[in-house]
């Protein structure tokens, strides 16, 4: 994955913070989204896992994940804190990863 240059970061409207567990993706995504006033998608909570009221630590159905990811990425600008393999192609509509 190519490294983004400053001018690309400044103008990006669709951004994914991608990396290993515990690397600070969610923290950085929150701060970036707040700074830019862009909608934030915390992927684990909003796309990957079913609500705890339905099933604790249960993955959503793959089709449902893809629908949720597709709906969010239709927005003109957004920030995501990750991308799961089951819907990575949808999330990677980002300009910067």
TrEMBL record:
This is Uncharacterized protein.
């Amino acid at each position: 994955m190519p490294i983004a240059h400053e001018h690309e970061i400044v103008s990006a409207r669709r951004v994914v913070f991608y990396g290993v567990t515990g690397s600070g993706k969610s923290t950085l995504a929150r701060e970036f989204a707040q700074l830019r006033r862009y909608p934030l998608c915390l992927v684990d909570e909003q796309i990957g896992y079913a609500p705890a009221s339905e099933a604790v630590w249960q993955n959503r159905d793959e089709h449902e994940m893809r629908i949720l990811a597709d709906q969010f990425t239709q927005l003109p600008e957004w920030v995501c804190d990750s991308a799961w393999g089951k819907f990575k192609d949808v999330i990677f509509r980002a300009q910067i990863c």
